[in-house]
Amino acid sequence: MSEITATNAGAVSADTSARYHVREHHPENGTNLGFWMYLMSDCLIFACLFATYAVLGRSYAGGPSGAELFDLKLIAINTSFLLLSSITYGFAMLESQRKRVGSTLLWLGITGVFGLAFLGLELYEFSHLIHQGAGPQRSAFLSAFFALVGTHGLHVFFGIIWLVTLMFQIKKHGLIPENRRRMACLSMFWHFLDVIWIGVFTFVYLMGVLP
């Protein structure tokens, strides 16, 4: 009797597994959706910083204004570095679609160099302002300026760390689907930083030099 029961149970189990095939899988668009949600949260952070600067951007407390401090030529060069880095990242994405590991790594490396150049000039600007006595504690205007521009620079810094890590992963494992997905996420992040910087360049620097 027990043998018949075991046989019947096995038959039921086989029949059930035949009708219901359960398997775990990674959702095809799950990573992209999650990363878009992260970018939206980052948008809120920058929106708050832009709003703070809009309120405090003319509160000089008797100190220097943006027209006295900002070097637009230097900022224009720095802006070109970041915009060029987005173009070179686009070339890296194209090469990854062609499955060319070497070319992909080359364009990613060039992107990283442009990102480092951008950070270098930004740090030079900060140190120059502090040396002039225009540090973040000097006025509400400068506090809002350092908070907004510094937060963007911090994002670029972490983006470069992510970029270098991704290059090591591609060199070790090649352009596997996981690495291409990571490249796509970093691409969204990098272009997002470009859009934010265009807002900073226009709203902070260009409008800051107006009387």
Describe this structure in words.
The chain has 211 residues and is mainly alpha-helical. It is built from seven helices and no strands. Mean pLDDT is 88; it is low at 1-18 and 20-24. Belongs to the cytochrome c oxidase subunit 3 family. One of its GO terms (molecular function) is cytochrome bo3 ubiquinol oxidase activity. It is a multi-pass membrane protein. Residues 28-209 form the Heme-copper oxidase subunit III family profile domain.
Descriptive labels:
single chain; mainly alpha; about 80% helix; Cyt_c/ubiquinol_Oxase_su3; disordered N terminus; Four Helix Bundle (Hemerythrin (Met), subunit A); elongated; about 210 residues; transmembrane
Summary, kept brief:
One of its GO terms (molecular function) is cytochrome bo3 ubiquinol oxidase activity. This protein has 211 residues and is mainly alpha-helical. Helices cover 82% and strands 0% of the residues.
Helix-strand category: mainly alpha
Distance between the termini: 97 Å
Percent of residues in beta strands: under 5%
Instruction: Please identify, by name, the CATH architecture of the domain at 72-205.
Output: Up-down Bundle
Listing every helix as H and every strand as E from the N terminus to the C terminus, the arrangement reads HHHHHHH
Shape: elongated
- Percent of residues in helical segments? over 70%
Please name the CATH topology of the domain at 72-205: Four Helix Bundle (Hemerythrin (Met), subunit A)
